[in-house]
Design a protein that fits this description.
The protein is α+β, with helices and mostly antiparallel strands. It is 38% helix and 13% strand. The longest helix is centred in the C-terminal third of the chain and has 15 residues. It is globular, with a radius of gyration of 13 Å. Bound molecules: zinc ion (ZN). The site of zinc ion has 8 residues, from loops.
């Protein structure tokens, strides 16, 4: 397919525009390269790479993963 969508210029997790961003991390998953804007997004991506790679509404996954993280963190919100 010749879909010119380039995940390389947007964060695969939070969908932030990375065109002029610095410190962008890249992760390879199943032969594709994904850009991540920050260590938090890298961590989230690594928790569910297949789901982010599928391109399905990352925000839903992020909410799931973040609530999962909250469960593991002691103390009040
Ligand atoms: Zn991000």
């Amino acid at each position: 397919m010749s879909n010119a969508e380039s995940p390389d210029t947007t964060c695969a997790v939070c969908d932030k525009d990375l065109t002029n961003a610095t410190g962008v991390a890249h992760i390879y998953h199943e032969g594709r390269r994904f850009a991540l804007c920050c260590p938090v997004c890298v961590q989230l991506f690594q928790r569910a790479p297949a789901r982010f790679a599928s391109g399905e509404r990352p925000q839903t996954i992020v909410e799931e993963l973040v609530s999962d993280l909250k469960w593991k963190q002691p103390g009040p919100l």
